[in-house]
Design goal:
0% strand; 8 helices
């Protein structure tokens, strides 16, 4: 509790030192997963995202089907979303959290984040379609070249399918 109090007081280095001491001492072996979650959060708060990711992934894989694993998944989603901008990974971890043994509020927050990222993907897909349409409107030769490239690729694909079907028919 003292280490958590230090963390709340923003004395992150002291809290980290004390939590590492608890891990090394072995006396709190049954609480290792919780201690590691706290350490991961300290790394995150200190801006050491790589070390935080490493710690949370270790928790997620070592302590499966525990509350700590759910918390680690949530934090991984948060890091991938907010620090790295990798929304597909964030989506994966938030989805995992929503069906985990994480605390109720964390699961609610994860579900909300999943919905928000879903909206982001939908909007991004729409914008990408508009951008491509605009590109074709402003550059008709690009449209013609893409159409020709698509037609050639499609014919090549169909030739491969025909070869496979013919070879399967010959084997039968």
């Amino acid at each position: 509790q003292h280490a958590l109090l230090l963390k709340d007081l923003k004395k992150l280095d002291e809290s980290e030192e004390e939590l590492n001491g608890l891990l090394e001492g072995g006396k709190f072996k049954a609480q290792t997963d919780r201690i590691m979650v706290e350490l991961g959060e300290i790394y995150y708060d200190k801006g050491n995202n790589e070390k935080a990711v490493q710690t949370f992934k270790e928790i997620d894989s070592t302590y499966k089907n525990t509350q700590a694993s759910g918390m680690a998944s949530f934090m991984l989603g948060k890091i991938y979303e907010r620090k790295f901008g990798v929304y597909d990974s964030a989506y994966k971890y938030y989805t995992k959290t929503a069906s985990s043994l994480a605390p109720y509020q964390t699961k609610i927050d994860a579900s909300t984040n999943v919905k928000n990222i879903d909206k982001y993907f939908t909007i991004k897909k729409t914008i990408d379609g508009y951008e491509k349409g605009f590109l074709y409107l402003t550059n008709p030769t690009r449209y013609m070249q893409d159409s020709i490239d698509y037609d050639l690729a499609y014919k090549e694909y169909m030739d491969e399918v025909t070869l496979k079907v013919d070879s399967m028919a010959a084997q039968a």
